[in-house]
Structures are given as structure tokens and as C-alpha cells.
Amino acid sequence: MFQRTISSLIFAATTLGATAAFAQTAPDVMIKQVAGDVIESVKNDKAIQAGDISRIHGLVDTQVMPHVDLQRMTTAVVGKAWKTATPDQQAKLQAEFKT
Question: N or C, which end of the chain is more exposed by having fewer CB within 10 Å?
């Protein structure tokens, strides 16, 4: 479970470049900064190291997700079918994609 969570963190960190284009900071600098902040938080939080899912989710929500364009990411994964999905289906898919 912890390995899956770490994999999710890594995936989220790699998608940061999608929103970095709109930021004033260069994408590589922003990704390094966010990744460094996440690593520092993990090093300093024994609960996260022990696999406390609620703490891990909190870390992702506060340090990673503000930099992720979830709709753009979901749209890219779903592909052409995104256009035929209803707004409700799109919202549900984005919510599931995040979890």
C-alpha cells in the first residue's frame, strides 16, 4: 500500500509540468522545489513514514495537488471519450482519478 502511495506521489510530481507552464517559475525549478518539499515532509513525519494514509493524503493535498491540473490530466488519460462524457461523468471521473 505504501509503495502504491509513493508511486502516486511520483506520478503527481511528474505531472506538475502541466501547470508549470502557466507559473512564473520554470517547470524544472518548480518540480524540484515541490519534490524537495515533499521529501523533507516525509523525512520529518514519522506517521507518513509508517504509512498513515490520512497524513499522506494531507501531504499530497497541501503540497502537490495545488500544482496539478487535474482536469487536463484526466482529459489526457481518457482521450476522445472525454468529449462524449456528461459533466457529471467528468466530475466523477476526476474525483476517482484523484483517489
Answer: C
Digit-coded pLDDT (tens) for 46-90:
999 999 999 999 999 999 999 888 889 899 999 999 999 999 999
Do 11 and 58 lie in one domain? The reply is yes
d(CA 35, CA 77): 23
How buried is residue 79: exposed, middle or buried, by Cβ count under 10 Å (0-12/13-18/19+)? exposed
For 5, the enclosing helix (H) or strand (E) is helix 2-14
Whether residues 22 and 60 share a domain: the answer is yes
Query: How is residue 92 written as a grid cell?
Result: 466523477
